Amino acid sequence: MDDDTLQKQSKYFFIICFFIILISAIYLVKPYITTIISAILLTYIFYPLYSKIKIGVRSENIASFLTTLIIVLIIFIPLIFAANALINQSIDFFYKVKEIDVTTFESFLSKYFNGHIDVQESFKDILNKVSLSIAKEASDFVVALPRRILQFFAMIFMMFYMFKEGPSIIERIEEHIPIKESHKKHIAKKFSGVVYASLYGLVLTAFIQGTVGAIGLWIFGVPSPILWGLIMIILSMLPFVGASFVWFPAALYKIFTNDTFSGIGLLLYGLLIVSTIDNIIRPKIVGAKGKIHPVLVLLGVLGGIPIFGFLGIILGPLILAIFNVFLEIYILEKDS
Questions:
Q1: In terms of DSSP H, where are the helices of 99-118?
Q2: Residue 4 has pLDDT above 70, yes or no
Q3: What is the Cα–Cα distance from 263 to 253, expressed in whole angstroms?
Q4: What is the largest distance, in Å, between two alpha-carbon atoms of the chain?
Q5: The pLDDT value given to residue 66
Q6: Alpha-carbon Rg of the chain, whole angstroms?
Q7: Closest alpha carbon to 54 in 163, 170, 157, 159
Q8: At 62, is the secondary structure helix, strand, or coil?
Q9: Where are the beta strands (DSSP E) in 157-305?
Q10: pLDDT tens by residue, 88-127
Q11: Could you report the per-residue pLDDT of 199-240, keeping only the tens digit for each?
């Protein structure tokens, strides 16, 4: 076998082996893709804090540990507070709903539809279905809890090392990207701008939504509007949850306890004002701060959440923004 043939076979053998190992590696880390991306984004977002702590303590290990601990406290203490308040109030709300007398409502409907309508029985049936649904969700959560805890500790472990080794990893990656230095800087600037703009937009929009929601609860006579406003701020940051988990049950409770005016008023207020804030204000905030068109922000969030979950709020607009940058680079290089 001559040297040329051996070289070609070696090349093909290496390529085949590389793709086999690559596919195997992807398959191995697939369950932890979201965890890895979360660790990368959190490390990037909190890296300035890590740098300041490192200057003070003069130790990478201690600085990385303290920064990771602060992240855990910032993220999970509010979530635990919101979950605890929501669970306690939901149990109280559930028992109050079970005691609601719907005979007045039943008489009104029977008169309106010219026939007897058993609202009480239908109401009980709905409550039973809701109870079973909640029990199932709780059971699924408990079953998935060990995996969630493992993913959480994996994320913490990765962040600890990413704070220390992140810059050197980025430098090595940048060295092997075959594009001009000016384009690399443009991409990095856009990445940084969109990530921080998305985070800023998420927090500010949630604060506005929770504040406006609390004002609505106060106007329509819902007890503890400030507490529920704080809970709405936290819930507004979570996809598929949002402030509606607070104002919608409160509106229904008002309606079924014969406070129809307040109930319908709160329902309209929540639908027309509170729920629209997220889709109107956030794209404008992120678009202005990240220098990306609001339409791309909205499309990115709507398309990113079903794929990436909570991370879609940041990753969706980021992917579209980076795509737009690559498109600009392609046009620029083509015309030059």
A1: 103-112
A2: no
A3: 7
A4: 97
A5: 92
A6: 26
A7: 163
A8: helix
A9: none
A10: 666 666 666 666 555 555 555 555 555 555 555 665 666 6
A11: 888 888 888 888 998 998 898 888 878 888 888 888 887 766
Q: Is 153 exposed, middle or buried (0-12, 13-18, 19+ CB in 10 A)?
A: exposed
Backbone conformation region of residue 58, classed left if phi is above 0, alpha if psi is from -120 to 50, else beta: left
Q: Which two tokens stand for residue 52?
A: 């300041």
- Dihedral angle at the C-alpha atoms of 32, 37, 198, 170, nearest 10 degrees? 180
DSSP 267-334: HHHIIIIIHHHHHHHHHHHHHHHHT--HHHHHHHHHHHHHHHGGGHHHHHHHHHHHHHHHHHHHHHHH
Residue with tokens 């039943």: 106
Q: Give the tens place of pLDDT for each residue, 149-203.
A: 888 888 888 988 888 888 888 777 777 777 777 777 777 788 888 888 888 888 8
Identify how many contiguous H helices and E strands the chain contains and give both numbers. 12, 0
Contact 328, 291 (CB under 8 A): no
Report the alpha-carbon distance of residue 260 to residue 216 in Å, rounded.
Answer: 15
- Contact in structure between 64 and 50 (CB atoms under 8 Å): yes
Torsion of CA 39, 42, 45, 51, to 10 degrees: -80
- Token reading at 336: 């030059």
For residues 222 and 247, give the distance between their C-alpha atoms in angstroms, rounded to a whole number.
9
Calpha distance 317→291 (Å, rounded)? 11
Please tell me the distance from the alpha carbon of residue 135 to that of residue 287, in angstroms, as a whole number: 41
Model confidence pLDDT, tens digit, residues 125-138 = 666 665 566 556 55
